């Protein structure tokens, strides 16, 4: 059994150092802590602790109603900076406290601004509310989708209002001293309960510091735990909320740390189509999925062959003979189960393109290696104003330092690019506006490997002649095809995540 302390002020302990407190918590079965901070100087202390115990301590930054005098000009900007530095951070604690401050307006203004930040950055909100039921009336509808009322010890009626609005209740030792204890604890659903110590405060005895290691003892006095054996305690209300609250987006934590929350959200909302799931397309897909692109359309008609294993990331002994689209979908969902993956098993030509582009897409990866289908796709995307990046020839290339993004009109030493340029120019396409990945490494191309410049040839070209005419199999390295695919994905990720900035 593991516990999560969803609210602790680790920086405020006097009797023990953070290392000792964390060590004792680990021994007690506590899997992590949310370290809450209350004003700008406190934010930096919480940030330092989160960096000292990565993956164990998650910070929360907020302006507490007790410290409004510390809300100097620019505090919102500073708070935003902390939230962007720590994409996993919560916002809070913030709210109302009528015992400490009887002035409504300044508390309401600061609370409202923090709610707006929680919504903007998609963060759970930790609410501090003391004798403030009436003051909260105008704020329920404004709260973010995820919020918790910290150190709840109020009435059943107050609890019902939290539940109705989709919130959570945080319970510590304070609820054990509440006159509402029995009614509240027996009525709160286990899946809406969070455990907290509020350490070093709110201990079982006055003036006694309480740390995260006390969570098992605390839980033993709280329904639904007290009435059942410990081994049957509901995991959801003890450990699973760690992912729900603090680390829900941990899968893409490092992406968001680099691109920011807005950039990450644009990736989540984007649809990218990958046409061709072979050597280049497979690596492009891998990077797009791992970066957190939320919607992917995968297009290919082929199955994996044993000869693909040397350079295609999706080709394994276990996938030989299987459809590339099905294997690709399984891998994407293993990386990101929340990704919306659509597969289309077809060959690209003028007849199938309307089907492919029936739904809007934000970007297309062109990883086709057959000339006519490639040109058909590129021309259609160009004329419809759909952003895309095309892969040129990677066969026979060995020097990865010669690979880069180029305008199609500026490619050199690539026979595929040469034939693509020629054909698209005949069709009236401005090749100076088409971005592609190519290598300018000069290699000797066998005469038998030259592309057939037959405009009427709409058949796919596949090694071994499984579908279409037979062609010469040329040597290729995984190092080169991987860089081709990753370069395409990198440019798409950059362009999508920054799109809103360029549109302003």
CATH class of the largest domain: Alpha Beta
Q: Determine the number of helices (DSSP H or I, runs of at least 4 residues).
A: 18
Structural shape: elongated
**How far apart lie the N and C ends?**
50 Å
At the fourth level of CATH, the homologous superfamily of the largest domain is NAD(P)-binding Rossmann-like Domain
| Beta-strand share of residues | 15-25%
Q: How would you characterize the overall build of this protein?
A:
The chain has 504 residues and is of the alpha/beta class. The protein has 2 domains: 246 residues, Alpha-Beta Barrel (TIM Barrel), CATH 3.20.20.140; 251 residues, NAD(P)-binding Rossmann-like Domain (Rossmann fold, 3-Layer(aba) Sandwich), CATH 3.40.50. Helices cover 38% and strands 15% of the residues. The chain is built from 18 helices and 15 strands. The strands form 2 sheets. The chain has an 8-stranded parallel beta sheet with strand order 1-2-3-4-5-6-7-8, with helices on both faces. Helix 3 runs parallel beside helix 4, helix 12 runs parallel beside helix 13 and helix 15 packs across helix 16. The radius of gyration is 29 Å and the shape is elongated. The chain starts with a strand and ends with a helix.
SSE topology:
Blueprint: E1 3-8, H1 18-27, E2 30-37, H2 40-52, E3 57-61, H3 75-85, E4 90-97, H4 104-121, E5 125-130, H5 133-136, E6 147-149, H6 156-164, E7 168-171, H7 173-176, H8 181-187, E8 193-195, H9 215-220, H10 235-246, H11 253-269, E9 271-275, H12 279-291, E10 295-299, H13 324-335, E11 340-344, H14 353-356, E12 363-366, H15 371-383, E13 388-391, E14 403-407, H16 415-426, E15 435-439, H17 478-497, H18 499-503
Parallel strand pairs: 1-2, 2-3, 3-4, 4-5, 5-6, 6-7, 7-8, 9-10, 9-12, 10-11, 12-13, 13-15
Antiparallel strand pairs: 14-15
Helix pairs in contact: 3-4, 12-13, 12-17, 15-16
